[in-house]
Amino acid sequence: MPEDKNKHLSSDEDYLLFQQSMSDVKPIKTDKYNPIADKPKLKPTKRHIEQHTQAPEFITEEHDSIKSADSVFFARQGLQHKTIRRLKRGAFSIDDVLDLHGLNKQQAHVYLAGFLVEQIENKHRCVMIIHGKGTGSENQYPILKNFTFNFLKSQASVLAITSAQQRDGGTGAVYVLLKSHQSSGV
Questions:
Q1: Number of domains in the chain
Q2: Is 34 exposed, middle or buried (0-12, 13-18, 19+ CB in 10 A)?
């Protein structure tokens, strides 16, 4: 019975064989690939802008009490503790991301409202909103962070909100768990 030629390769031969088989492979420049961060920023449709530009301003200054480094959390009553823990750990698959950097409060309102409508239409379950830490705010209370948290809490389609894990932006982003809609109506 003939012996398999490759069974008795020396470590030098193994190395040369490996080098030969990897000769046309190009090394990646970084191991920190983030497919979510590479997605383009959401552009709200004309319909979303028209629907939400006339929306009343509902957030008052008295609710703007979250500081830059503060973690945020909100969950509707009845949500299972196991689900909350998964969300806090960042264990849900992120279906989409919205980055609000560089927007003012009114622009953020339009983008955020349109984004939520789109996510519900697409039956997405978990999304991430990047609002930034607001360290450049004139006072110690970041405008977009406070606005985003308060706006999301007011939406019936939002089950829970929590600050993101450090790998996803920490206190500069939130994970948002949306109601699942099994029926055809939203």
A1: 1
A2: exposed
